[in-house]
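PROTOCOL LOG
Step 1. Enter all chains and additional molecules of the complex.
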Amino acid sequence: MKPAPFDYVAPATVDEACSVLADAGGGATVLAGGQTLLPLLNLRMSQPFIIVDINKVAELKGIARVEGCTRIGPMTRQCEVIASEVLARDLPVLMQAVGHVGHHQTRNRGTIGGSIALGEPAAELPATAVALDATIEVRSTRGTRHIAAGEFYLGPYVNALEADELVTGISFPEWPKGHITLFREVARRPGDFALVGMVGAVSVEGGKIVRAGLAWFGMGPTPIRAKAAEQMLLGQTLDAIDPQAVAERAVAGTAPFDDHHASAEYRRTVGTRIFARTLREAVQIGEPA
Amino acid sequence: MSRHRIEMTINSRPHAGDVEARVSLSDFLRDDAGYTGVHIGCEHGVCGACTVIVDGKAVRSCLMLAVQADGAQVTTAEGLAAPDGTLHPVQQVMLDEHALQCGFCTPGVVMTLAALTNDDKKPSEAQLLAALSGHICRCTGYQGIRRAAKKLAGAAGGKS
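Step 2. Run joint prediction.
Step 3. Record the structure below.
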């Protein structure tokens, strides 16, 4: 199918984009990489009056170190994250996650900000932002505000953005060198949304876990932070961890649903297993005999 | 409903058009510019048949508006072979390995492999096979395409 008619504007600056969004009074949709929006337009599931294409806004691109954080411009393409040596060193788990987003061809257009703003519950990047305590910077003609990723997602495809607001940056707090990364998902085919997945990081100091950030995707209406599991890990030595017990605690906080891909029960069962296995492998304590 | 005057370079030739904002790059390439080697399958980014090279990268032309390609360098399957008919290295290896049957998905597959191997990029076999996950082929069972990709790994590519 073909999209319903719409007007198209391609502002060159964030200010311009924000004033178009403000004037549109909710009738505008922002076009980032378009790898989800274009299908929705083609299927006429989305019929905006105005498309605001932010691909020409140079200030929304790029990766920088800002005040102890890695700040990623929302229009940084997923393929640019994969190619970034800075991110390979500073945010390795984000690299792992991005490698599972769509396909090579869609990652050439798809953006970090687009995926994070969309908030598909089974997507990798929103959960990564939640697990790593990212902050989402948003702007409108009314000003700038910062939203913690943990408070950004309200439901499937529903986020804390007002209709006139634009995501202008995603900041990931620094993790110490040598921290442990965790990522695993189960999907029917490469590039599909996950049936269930988990992502996070753990850092160890003086033999004990001092920091842990873990989240689920595909396990409820939003990405779900595994707070209780993090609490179990904090203060532990790596060899004292019982991955199965941590995984069971983590899955208790989820709210998976039945759909035509998998049942909630399947998601809980497989979720517990991948959580335990990923944790076990990550801390290198090996399979129990 | 806005209309836009756009200009792009398609297969090394300049092409200008006047399009509605909602026209996809795939429809523009086929209907306005006449490059029907761009095959449109699903129109929502799943099948990969419409893959073309935009500014050096393989992208889904159904997931880009024509107006977004204003000023871009676009290559379609028609732009791969040399003017004297010599096949592009990717086309030749696809032929040698019987990597196509009906040919519907083929232009997309070829464009992905060409984008990854052009300009002597020398991708690994794993990179090429991973990129093929973005294409659906209903005839071949993929084995011929896999063989073609394996042969291309580390081999000299074409020029973009």
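Step 4. Note key features.
The first helix of chain B runs from residue 25 to 32.
Chain B has two domains: 3-79, 89-152.
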